[in-house]
Write a structure and sequence with these properties.
alpha/beta, 2 domains, single chain, binds 3-methyl-2-oxobutanoic acid, binds zinc ion, Recoverin, domain 1, two-stranded parallel ribbon, TIM Barrel, about 10% strand, eight-stranded parallel barrel
Length: about 375
C-alpha cells in the first residue's frame, strides 16, 4: 500500500505574485476548474486581505469548485484571518492558511519580536482561525533557516492550538536536500503530537533545489506538497507540480502516490503559461517543448530502435502528442481544435467555426501556422 501525498496547488497565490502574471477573477476561476480536473487536493486561491480583487477571486473560486479544499492565505493577525474566513464562506471545504516568520532573521528584522512572542502570536492566530473553519494550516515562514529546536516547539504549539497542517517553507530556497531530510526527520521524531497533523513542504527554487528538497521532505515524513504549474512563483519560483507528480509516478517503488491525472499536465502547463503570459523554458522537465524532442543522431538512432533507450516517460502519459501535426491551409477543423486544446483553449461551435475561418486566412498567408501564431490568433 503506497502513501497518499496531498497536492496543494498555489499557482493562483504564490505563482500569481510574479510581476506581470496577475490574473483576473475570471482567469483564476477558469484555471481553478482545470486544477480540479487535474486532481489537486487543495487550491490556494489567493490572499483575500491583499486587495478587493483577490478577495473576490477567493469567493468565486470557492463557488466554482466542489472536490478540492479551497485555501486562503493570511498573516497571523485577526483582520487577515477574518478576511480569509469571509472570502471562504461559499467553499465546500474551506481552509485558512495563517502563519508568521520562524527564523531568527525574520523574528528580529521583520517583526522586531522574540521567539516566545512569536509562539504566542502563532497560537492565538491558529485558535482564532479555528473559530471560523475546521481546517487550519499554519506556515512557519523561513522554516528552512529556523533554529530546529525552536521550530519543533512552534510546531508542537500550533498543533496543540488546532492546526491540521503545518507548513515548513524553505522560503529562500537555501536548504540542501540531505539537510531537508534531516530537518523533517527531526520534527517527525521530536514533536510529540506530530501524528495529529500533516507536515507540508513549500520549497522555493533559488538554488534549483525545490523539487529535490520536496522529495527529501516526503521521504522523511511530509505528506503534503505545495507546488505550482510550471514551477512559477516568487523570484526563481516554487516547486513544480509536474515534476513532483511524475517523480512519484516514475519511482513507484518509493511507495507514494498522488491523485494527479498526469495526462493533463502538458495542456495545464500551456494554459497557465498563456494565461499568465509566462513562457515555459524549452528544456523544462516534463512540459518544456524539448522534453520529448530527440535531436542528436545517436539519440535519434537509439530512440527509433526502441523508445525506452532515451525516454523514461511516454509523452502521452503527460499529455504531449507523440507526433507533431503541422498546421497548414490544408488542415481540417479537427486538427485545429486538437492543437488549440493542447494550448489550453477549449472551443466549441460556433466559436470554433469562426476561428477556423480566421485560421484559414492566416494559413493562406504564412503557409505553416505554429503555436505562437495560434496564440496570437486567439488573442486577436
Ligand atoms: O514562501 C513562503 O514562505 C510562503 C508562505 C507565505 C507560505 O509563501
Ligand atoms: Zn512561498
Amino acid at each position: 500500500m503506497s502513501d497518499k501525498i496531498y497536492v496543494f496547488d498555489t499557482t493562483l497565490r504564490d505563482g500569481e505574485q510574479v510581476p506581470g502574471c496577475q490574473l483576473t477573477t475570471d482567469e483564476k476561476v477558469m484555471i481553478a476548474k482545470e486544477l480540479e480536473k487535474l486532481g489537486v487536493d487543495i487550491i490556494e486561491a489567493g490572499f483575500p486581505v491583499s486587495s478587493p480583487g483577490d478577495f473576490r477571486s477567493v469567493v468565486e473560486v470557492s463557488k466554482a469548485v466542489t472536490e478540492p479544499t479551497v485555501c486562503a492565505l493570511s498573516r497571523a493577525v485577526k483582520g487577515d484571518i477574518d478576511s480569509a474566513g469571509e472570502a471562504l464562506k461559499f467553499a465546500k471545504r474551506p481552509r485558512i492558511h495563517t502563519g508568521i516568520g520562524a527564523s531568527d532573521i525574520h523574528i528580529k528584522h521583520k517583526f522586531n519580536s522574540s521567539r516566545e512572542a512569536i509562539i504566542e502570536q502563532a497560537i492565538d492566530a491558529v485558535k482564532y482561525a479555528r473559530n471560523l473553519v475546521d481546517d487550519v494550516e499554519f506556515y512557519a515562514e523561513d522554516a528552512g533557516r529556523a533554529d530546529l529546536a525552536f521550530l519543533a516547539k512552534l510546531t508542537e504549539s500550533v498543533i496543540k492550538a488546532g492546526a491540521t497542517v503545518v507548513n515548513l517553507p524553505d522560503t529562500t530556497g537555501y536548504v540542501l536536500p540531505n539537510e531537508m531530510y534531516d530537518r523533517i526527520n527531526y520534527l517527525m521524531n521530536n514533536v510529540p503530537n506530530v501524528d495529529k497533523a500533516i507536515l507540508s513542504m513549500h520549497n522555493h527554487n533559488d538554488l534549483g533545489m525545490a523539487t529535490a528538497n520536496t522529495i527529501a521532505g516526503i521521504r522523511a515524513g511530509a505528506r503534503q506538497v505545495e507546488v505550482t504549474i510550471n514551477g512559477i512563483g516568487e523570484r526563481a519560483g516554487n516547486t513544480s507540480l509536474e515534476e513532483v507528480a511524475m517523480i512519484l509516478k516514475v519511482h513507484k517503488s518509493m511507495g507514494y502516490h498522488t491523485n494527479i491525472n498526469s495526462e493533463m499536465l502538458f495542456p495545464m502547463s500551456n494554459l497557465v503559461s498563456q494565461t499568465m503570459r509566462m513562457p515555459v523554458q524549452a528544456n523544462k522537465a516534463i512540459v518544456g517543448r524539448n522534453a520529448f524532442a530527440h535531436s542528436s543522431g545517436i539519440h535519434q538512432d537509439g530512440f527509433l530502435k526502441h523508445t525506452d533507450t532515451y525516454e523514461i516517460i511516454s509523452p502521452q502519459e503527460v499529455g504531449v502528442p507523440k507526433s507533431s501535426i503541422v498546421l497548414t491551409a490544408r488542415s481540417g477543423r479537427h486538427a485545429l481544435k486538437h492543437r488549440l486544446e493542447m494550448l489550453g483553449f477549449k472551443l466549441e461551435k460556433p466559436v470554433l467555426d469562426d476561428t477556423y475561418k480566421r485560421f484559414l486566412d492566416l494559413a493562406d498567408q504564412i503557409k505553416e501556422v505554429n503555436d505562437k501564431d495560434l496564440v496570437k490568433l486567439m488573442r486577436a
